Amino acid sequence: MTRLSVNINKVATLRNARGANTPDLIQMAQDIERFGAEGITVHPRPDERHIRYSDVRQLSSVLSVEFNVEGYPNKSFIDLVKEVKPAQVTLVPDPPGALTSNAGWDTIKNKSLLTEVIAGFKDAGIRTSIFVGTELKFIEGAKEVGADRVELYTEPYADMYLNDKIMAVRPFVEAALLAKELGLGLNAGHDLSLDNLKYFVQNVPNLMEVSIGHALISDALYYGLENTVQMYLVRLNG
Fold it and tell me: What is the 8-class DSSP label of residue 13?
C-alpha cells in the first residue's frame, strides 16, 4: 500500500494572499486527514511566503496522521524540526529564493553536510528522507550519509509521461530497485497528478509514500476537497 501525504503549501499561499486566516490552514489539514489521507506535508521556507513556522508548530500538535516537514537544512529549519519532532523530515536542496523544488541532492558533493544533519535528526528520533533524482550514484550516496529513505523527484516523469510513459517511468523503476537493494525506503513527489499517478504506482516497486500538493489542491477547485482526496487514494490503491 502506498500512502498519500498531501502537501498543503498552496493552501497557505491562498491564505497569505489576503493576510487573514481564510482558508483556515489548520482546519483544512484536519479535514484532509478526516477525508482519508495518511499524511500531511509542509515545506516552510525562510521567507515564510506560504507555510509559516507557527503553522508547523500548530500542525504538530493537532495531527494524528504522519507529519512530514521538508526543507533546506539551514539552522532555523533544523531547530524547528528538532522542536516539533515530526514523523519524517525530508531534506531538499532548494536555495532560499527558489520558487519550488526543481532538482534533487548531489549526495556526493554534499556528503559532509548531509551526514552531519541527518545524524542530528536521527539522534532526535526523526526519520530522514533525502530528495534525489534517479541518478543511481546519488541514491547510493543517500545510503552513505545515513538516510532512512529517498524521495524521488518526479517532474521528469511527469514531463515525459504523455509522450512516452514507458521511457518516462524506466529510470524510476531502476532507482526503486536500487533503493530496495540498499535498504532505503522509497517516497516520491513533484508534479504527480490524477493523470499520471496510477501508472507510476503500478510500475515503480516498493513505493511507500507519495507527496502531492499543487495538482491535488488545484483539482479540489473543480471536484471538492473530500472527493479529490478520495480520487487520489483510488489512483494509489484502487
Answer: H
